[in-house]
Structures are given as structure tokens and as C-alpha cells.
Amino acid sequence: MNILLTNDDGIWAPGLRALYQILFSAGHQLTVVAPLTEQSAVGHAVTLSSPLRIKKVNDGPFQGFGVSGSPVDCVKIALGTVYNLQPQLLISGINNGANVGVDILYSGTVAAATEAALVGIPALAVSVDHFNPEDLSPQAEYVRDFIHTIDWASLPPRRVLNMNFPDLPVPECKGLRLCPQTQAVYEDWYDERTDPRGRRYYWLCGEILPQNLEPDTDRTLLTQGFITLTPLTFDFTDHKLMHQLDASVAGGR
Amino acid sequence: MNILLTNDDGIWAPGLRALYQILFSAGHQLTVVAPLTEQSAVGHAVTLSSPLRIKKVNDGPFQGFGVSGSPVDCVKIALGTVYNLQPQLLISGINNGANVGVDILYSGTVAAATEAALVGIPALAVSVDHFNPEDLSPQAEYVRDFIHTIDWASLPPRRVLNMNFPDLPVPECKGLRLCPQTQAVYEDWYDERTDPRGRRYYWLCGEILPQNLEPDTDRTLLTQGFITLTPLTFDFTDHKLMHQLDASVAGGR
Predict the structure, then answer these.
(1) DSSP string of A168-191?
(2) Which CATH class is domain A2-183+212-250?
(3) Which end of chain A has fewer CB atoms < 10 Å from its terminal CB, N or C?
(4) From CA A104, how far away is CA B110, in angstroms rounded?
């Protein structure tokens, strides 16, 4: 297949490199357009107030284009007028850290996939539930086999498949489960510290409380050792509430 | 009401100041926690890789807290352990530039409202279809009156009301219309330029082609002179596709 690769951990990240190596060895035609620097948790950020630069990255057999922007910028650069690519599939990842539940809002990995899906490119986001994984080749091999099980061209438009690997060696995973996102949100707190010059600063911390997790949703199944797969869609309009409000708020017009 | 104000144009932006002045004069209890610098199009970005700093901003009658991060950071700072606020309503805006259709993905204005909604705070995002509006007091006065027409506490959880003003003086607007987002996407292109040192750089440009716009959606109605209101929800899971794929992909487990 003709595949566009990107991520949010940056063009030097091991997850992207593992995907590249495994998919290249399998004979796929690959183009990499990825951020030059780590862009985790940038969400669907797009660079409007500053220009973008592109740097060609040749690193042994690896070739790609590094962009001085966000994952969404990379997809726009790749599919837009700069490179005009028309891949059959975009794969974003493999991300260090799961993207489940509300993570989807914050995730640059998923945002890149969304951006492709919006303009009609089938898209897969891949993440692993570990912030510093040692070797993602087994996950990349799983992805290599998985992409042949989906008829990408027949998926409904504007959909992303969001895959997450548990924090387990792939052979020990319990298999693939289709599941919805958890609705549980993070309990956030800030760690307040003082810098060497006596000024206060704040680090974000947060966790999802286990008692808030529903069974058979992505976070729960991932923790149980399943590989999870969630199809995502992006119509934010709440049509039911729209009609209710239309009767009340705008009833007088 | 006890209202939290934020935005993505930054704590010095006229749209935020207009809201502050009008709502303050109307007797509301206001807290401002807003980005120190412009954060347009940052989407749901959250700052994880660097610490945040907070600066108190006193500017005549205006008081607020400026945060060295994104709109979502500001909401987390305000509602989380730093200030522990429990406002009855969050208002994000008034943003320079409309947030309709897929703008909702990129918009820091909407992301701030979403972040509040996720933790149970009713939220209103307000934008105006002009990138450099002169005086947003009339829009702020409209918002002041509008917020009394909604029973915020009785809205379903995790909803944002997304309001957009057309590029018209408020008295000339055709009234308020409840409507869905347009599904039309931008046709992007990059303006390729060369800097004074001979290096190439790229500016993102884009437009939604009028022929792609559906009638009675936000972009269309806004251009026709209506004030638009769209209730947004954030369940991304495509349950129908999930069940279809479950039968095919994971059928063999």
C-alpha cells in the first residue's frame, strides 16, 4: 500500500521508526512527514501565526520530511499543496502513551489521523500504554498484519480507527477488542514548585480514578491486557439538544 | 452569576475585555484565567512537557490571572487544585474569527469550553466572524442578555453551546438560529516564500468553497447574517461502525 506515516513524538521517535522499518520491509510505499520536535498533547493545533519549515531527514535507510510544526501541520503539508500526496492510508504513531477516552481530545497522534480522515484519507492512530517502551517492533508487526484485515476504502468517510496496545509484550496480549471510549475524565492536580530563583511554577498531574471506569470501554480493556480498537467520528453537533433549545431559546424569533 | 472567563486570544484581547466590562457592570462575579499570549488554533493542547507560570494582571478595573499556556491549561488551572473554582458558567471568548464546522477541532476558544464541560461546568464559547473587530461591546451585551435565556444547570452534562456572531453590527443581525455544524472542510494550500537568507518557508492558507456548504448549517447562516448557536457533544465513538467492525475484524477471537 501507499502509506503516509506521521506521529506526535517527532521524526526521531522509536515508534515511528519501528513502523517505518517493518512496513518498508513488507514492501509498502512509505512517505514520512512528521514533526521535527516532540508535540505530545498538542491536540488539533495548527500553525497559523508563524511560518513552517521543512527539513529532509535521511538516517540510514530511513527517509522523511521533518516539519517545524504540529502533527496536523504535517498532514496538511503532506496532503496539501506542498507534497500533494494521495496515500491509501495514514498511520499515526506508534505513540508513547495510550490515547483512550478524553485523551483523544488532547492527542496529537489522533489529531493527525483526524486531519487525514477529514479530507477523505483512511486513518489509523496507534498508541501503546507505556511512556518509555523499549522496542515497538512487535507492535509494528501487529499493525503490519492488521491493516490487511480492514477494507479501508469501504469505511464510511471521516472516520479514524484508534488502536491502543496494552503495557504487555504483544504475544501476551489477550487479543483485539472493539470498544467505545471511556467517558471517565482525569482528576487533575498541579504540583506547585519553586524554581532556583524563588518563583513559583506548576506541573500538571492527573489520573483517572478506577471507580469511574466503565466495563468494556477502552481504558478498562487496555488495563486488562486487550488491544483495543475504537472507530471515531467527528460530528460534534448534539442534534437532540439542538432541537430542544430551538423550541425554547429561539422560539420567539 | 459566578462566571469564569477565558479565551484563546490572550488576556489582553479586546473580546475578553468587552465581556469583562459588560458582565461586571451587570453585577456578575467574574474570575478571569486566560493565556498570557495569543493561542489561536492551538486546539485542545495541554502543556505537559514544560511547567506553567501564572501572572496576576491588574489593568484598571480589570483583574485576571494570565497563564503561560493554552486555553485548556487555563481552565485546568482555574478549576483544578490551583484555584479550585466552581463557577456556574464558563464563557470563552469573544474570539476574533468564527468557530464553525471543523474550526471546532482547531479552536482554542471551543477547547476551553469543552474542558470545562468535561468536568461538569456549563460552558459557552463565543466568536465573531471578523479577525480584527473594532468594538465587541454590543456582542458582549448580547451575551449578557442571552445567558439568562438558558437554564444552564439543566443542560445535559458535557455539552458546550457554541455561539457565533456574523460580521455585522449586532442590531443588523437577523436573530439567533440553532443549527448544526457544516461538514464542509477547508481547501488548504501553502504559500511558499523565501526568507532574507534564502531559505524556504510555508504559510498555511485555506478556504471553504461556497459550493460545499449545506443550507441551514453554521457557516451558511453566519454568512447570511444570523447569530448561530450549536450545542456540541464529545462522544467520538462511532457505535454503529464499532459493531460492524466487531463482526468482521474481531470475529475470530
Answers:
(1) S-GGGS--EEE-PPP----EEEEE
(2) alpha beta
(3) C
(4) 15
Q: Which of A33, A40, A161, A238 to mutate to test the interface with B (most CBs of B within 10 A)?
A: A238
| Cβ contacts of A4 within 8 Å, gap of 6 or more | A30, A31, A32, A33, A75, A78, A79, A85, A87, A89, A90, A91, A116, A121
CB nearest to A111's CB, from B43, B54, B158: B43
A251 touches chain B (CB under 8 A): no
Its ipTM equals: 0.81
Whether B247 contacts chain A with CB within 8 A: no
Residue A210: all three cell numbers together: 478506577
Contact assignment for B178 to A246 by CB distance below 8 Å: yes
Q: Per residue of chain B (253 residues), what is the pLDDT tens digit?
A: 999 999 999 999 999 999 999 999 999 999 999 999 888 777 888 888 788 999 999 998 899 999 999 999 999 999 988 899 999 999 999 999 999 999 999 899 999 999 999 999 999 999 999 998 889 999 999 999 999 999 999 899 999 999 999 999 999 999 999 999 999 999 888 999 998 888 899 998 888 999 999 999 999 999 999 999 999 998 888 888 888 888 777 544 4
